[in-house]
Design brief:
This protein is of the alpha+beta class. The chain has two domains: about 110 residues, no CATH class; about 230 residues, no CATH class. The chain has six helices and 21 strands. The longest helix has 9 residues. The radius of gyration is 21 Å and the shape is globular.
Amino acid sequence: MKFGLLKAFVLGSVVPLAVALNACGDDSSSTSGPVNNDGFRGGIPDTVETFVELSNYDCGKSLRCVTTYLVEYHGKAVCDGENGWVFSPLVEKMGCDFFTESGHFREEEFSSSSTELVPDPNLETEESSVSSSKGAWAYLNPDIDYSEFTDARDGQVYKTLSTSTQTWMAQNLNYDPGDVSDMGEYAWSGCYNNKADSCSKYGRLYTWQVAMNNADCAHGKECKPNGFVQGVCPSGWHLPSLYEYEVLINNFDSKFGYNHTIEALSSTAGKYLRSMTGWDSSGNGTDSSGFSALPAGYRNYHGDFYDAGRYATFWSASEFNSTDAYYLRLYYNMDDVILNYRDKGNVFSVRCFKDN
């Protein structure tokens, strides 16, 4: 697996993160290294070559705040205590106290004023078959051999699912597009109930023009998309079309058919697409597809949030008219999958689809 090199902006100039950390007194060759708040490392080495190697180490609750120097990223990785690894500038939000071997707190270790990780645009990312790090994505189907993809824009890692004809992200997109207010009246992207932990759990929510990354696709405008629409997805991926959703559903309900233009329903495919955990009222699916849909809920164009735990709703790149676009929805209390259209001002999840 190859990941994009991460760099740090330091006082307006770009330097490798390793240099920035060394300037703060860090030495990646140290044999002791920072420990967690309880002084326990749990077998995690001070230096790890690749993210794949790092994912082999347990990163459970007892190891929260343990750090290691990740050579591939030229910087520190911090255990979040939930089988995940965090990189600056998100580290300071964890509330960790980082200690040296002698037990002294080193405030500058992850100072957001001195370092900010950004991807190197000159390097690409690629997928790799990795099954050893499934613990970081506990809700995914353990019987599926997922691959991984790293978004070079922010370093986030996504599991991916491949069939004979399609490759999907097996997780909702969690990319923050920044300020989107110039894209139109209804343009918005954020976390369910405006809580950051909802983004960590479910991914972000997007209005349609933000998902399309096109102000001309706003409510009241007909943008007539054609071909692959990358939208808010990373390079090499795109927002799925209505047809690509139809192919997915037909894999589990051959009677569903194609070329739908109004509401279309499969009464059976939903249970194969829903994740095995996370749904209200015993609404978990079998997830035999590996699609692992989580019930992220949605926000309407008035700004009200609804139905986390109950509904999963995903935008497509297909437009119905100037006010509506097509989406896919799954339910907690039935095995239905619906393709329909709704107002572009609604705020739904995004699943990215790999370019052919």
